[in-house]
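Hi everyone,

Forwarding the result from last night's run.
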Amino acid sequence: HPVGPGLLALPGTIMTDASTPTPEAAAAAVRSQKAEGADFIKTVGLSRANFLGAMHEANALGIPFDGHVNSDVDVREAAKGMRAIEHLGPAETMLLSCSSDEAAIRQALAALDPTPPQVGPQADMADVIARIIASPLSNLPAAEIALIARVVDTYDEAKCRALAGELVADGSWQVPTLIRLRTMSLPDDPAYANDPNLRFIPSDTRRMWAELAEE
């Protein structure tokens, strides 16, 4: 008997702008993955047009659409077609819809470079990809980090409760992965550097984590 949980569902290749650079390519990838037997579509880093192209095709074909939502997509809109949103976005995506200054912050974000960090076969940058996965926020420009702080400072609980009601009504599950969010936001917490479980982690990975914590 195998030790560990059984595999319940498996997506196709993770969809990014690097692998699906147009809405048409994104829709075609969804069709291909469904034909190959994928249980759901997984998106990471799809910018708005490509995201919507993939989501609409997945919905039309009746295959679940899950994953990340970039800040150029309103999470309310995404929830209409997503079964599950991971890491509350991540970054500012979910909290942005809870901000009392949402419209102005969205406008400021739109003025930034909309190209998200890419993880995919065309990126061909193993070390860069590993660092992005380990600490996504460290790759963001200072201007976006400042906007994330502004999102937090303008948090509106009433708006957040209203958003939660919309997500429930749309049947869009949230996957908070709170430890992941904490390590992204507080990578320099001494608790991580002193964790005894680090002895099980390869030395190269530990070294990279230490470097990221100092950045």
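Strands lie at 41-43, 65-67, 84-86, 173-175.

Cheers,
N.
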